[in-house]
């Protein structure tokens, strides 16, 4: 019948109430399930001191890191988000009267709300690119979901056969995910694996085209003529569709611009701001495909198997998945406006 932890104020009140109601120590113990010693002690404390709450929270060893120490530790974290617990401990102990262990530092950081996370990867934005992103968001801030349904989204993506294990971790609070000091800037680059080009709209998934070699202007012209054109004319027979593409060099080649100019009576090309993958919902489809590949029971062991897996997963993407992404566009635009053209969490 012994208690397993401190009594709550309610339990202490029950004990006092039962004793005042005339129950004996044994009867109270049997009724409430506490030991006779506990019943006697609680009622005695109430009778002598009118005490009905525990003071055990004031017992025990004092915390080695007080409020001032926590503020100092927070400054160390903000000064170097990528510091390890060992580095933070060494820097904290320099000049301090008391030395603390790495375990204490780790526990204190968690109590302060910090956790070790991977930084969000965002494009490296220049001042000019920020301005162009902001202008795009301002020009489309009044577009409704119905307007965005008229856009066909496209992009290339590369899937690696073996992912890199190199990961950078940072210390941050829950609300600091988009703080500039918590971000990891990236630039567009190549890599091994399989490259594909895809297109989709709110209405339907389009074709997914493997790119065997480097995607130059000639290869991209074939994609535009053989896949973009039939998709746009089928999805938007009233010629009210917009085709989205990023600003890759092959997309801006003269022969590509001339082709779109010849077909401008069938659909328009959406003017796209530079370095804006966070505005393109197809990026999230690539993430879905990537995750599905990594949870396959039998992992691809060569590029042919990887390509087959990508094509199979793409065709099975549920409709609600890509429709929900298109419906997120008003929120994406607002996020860019709020960030004044800077990177967003999308």
List the helices and strands and how they pair.
Elements: H1 9-20, H2 25-32, H3 36-49, H4 67-79, H5 85-93, H6 102-111, E1 115-117, E2 120-123, H7 127-139, H8 145-148, E3 151-159, E4 170-172, E5 183-186, E6 194-200, E7 205-211, H9 217-235, E8 242-243, H10 254-262, E9 268-269, H11 282-294, H12 303-315, H13 319-327, H14 329-338
Helix pairs in contact: 1-3, 2-3, 7-14, 11-12
Task: Give a verbal description of the structure.
The chain is of the alpha/beta class and 346 residues long. The chain has three domains: 9-58; 67-113; 124-175 and 192-339, 2-Layer Sandwich (Nucleotidyltransferase, domain 5), CATH 3.30.420.10. Helices cover 45% and strands 12% of the residues. It contains 14 helices and nine strands. The protein has helices spanning 9-20, 25-32, 36-49, 67-79, 85-93, 102-111, 127-139, 145-148, 217-235, 254-262, 282-294, 303-315, 319-327, 329-338, and strands spanning 115-117, 120-123, 151-159, 170-172, 183-186, 194-200, 205-211, 242-243, 268-269. It has a five-stranded mixed sheet, sandwiched between helices. Strands 1-4 form a two-stranded antiparallel sheet. Strands 2-5 form a two-stranded parallel sheet. β6 (194-200) and β7 (205-211) form a beta hairpin. α2 crosses α3 (36-49), α7 (127-139) crosses α14 and α11 packs across α12 (303-315).
